[in-house]
Amino acid sequence: MKTSDFDYHLPESSIAQTPAEPRDSSRLLVLHRDSGRIEHRIFRDLSLFLRPNDLLILNRTRVIPARIFAKKETGGKVELLLLRRRDELTWEALVGGKGLRTGKKVTVENGPQAEIVEILEGSERLIKFSEPIEPYFPKVGNIPLPPYIHEKLSDPERYQTVFAEEMGSAAAPTAGLHFTPQLLDALKEEGVKIAYVTLHVGLDTFAPVTEDDPEEHKIHTEWCELPQETADLINAAKNSGGRVIAVGTTSVRTLESAGRATTGDGQQTTIHGLRPVVKSFVGPTDIFILPGYQFKVVDAMITNFHLPKSTLIMLVSAFAGRERILSAYETAIKESYRFYSFGDAMLII
What we know:
Number of helices: 6
Distance between the termini: 24 Å
Order of helices and strands: EEEEEEEEEEHEHEEHEHEEHHE
CATH class of the largest domain: Alpha Beta
CATH architecture of the largest domain: 3-Layer(aba) Sandwich
Structural class: alpha/beta
Radius of gyration: 21 Å
Number of strands: 17
Strand content: 25-35%
């Protein structure tokens, strides 16, 4: 297995620059894993493929307005992109600006002072604010859109899911952007159950794998939580013949992290000989899902179209097969689907 096995050519015109309006009007490519058959639908058609007792898992993380502008003591401009909070005052951040060595101080425009306390990898720094930065987010923070999106976002809430609650992500769990409150209500009325997990998305998730052998790639940890209420619903769904449908690769990684913690690398845990059980889980995960991985929890997934040679296209290839995924991507390009964060969706069943 080579990283180049997960490469494909995408015309720049296929990269979505703005989100679909309304959210559930985006297109939906349905890929049947058993046969490779493809259907072309609209996202609001999702109910056609779900059944009563199916359980939809949503990631309720919220993107922090983590792009912040500051000035050095000399007056030079600095850009901070907050990635992870270490404690009340300390954050890991990407910094843009020269001479930002340990001990250097910058002042956030209309906000507190911050000091560089440690140099991490590349342009990453550990910075410590003079007071908590979160109260300043409404006036100093900007939503950090991916670099391939060049259009300005008129409504920052369009880069948040309608169910986002837990502040902590550097990027949106984009598969969830397609849902509207009305669609979620309609699914519930049809007997589909909904449960929530949290995984705070780091920018490293989207970084391309640069090693020739993907197994040599170091994946960064992300914090996630699968609460007991969700574990109970998963166990009930499994034992009643329902399917667990993960919305987004972030939900997949949370579910499979919990599954790994519950069952280890051995046989799946069962109740009275029935389907596998998941326990609640909270903490960092470094799970890296490559082809050959045996999924413990996820039965189907909703996802967007991912960047070439990324850990995410490797994950969906593990679920549906590399050749099948690349063939589906080729079809999507020919059929003018929109790719990446603001793009269309894929249901893999």
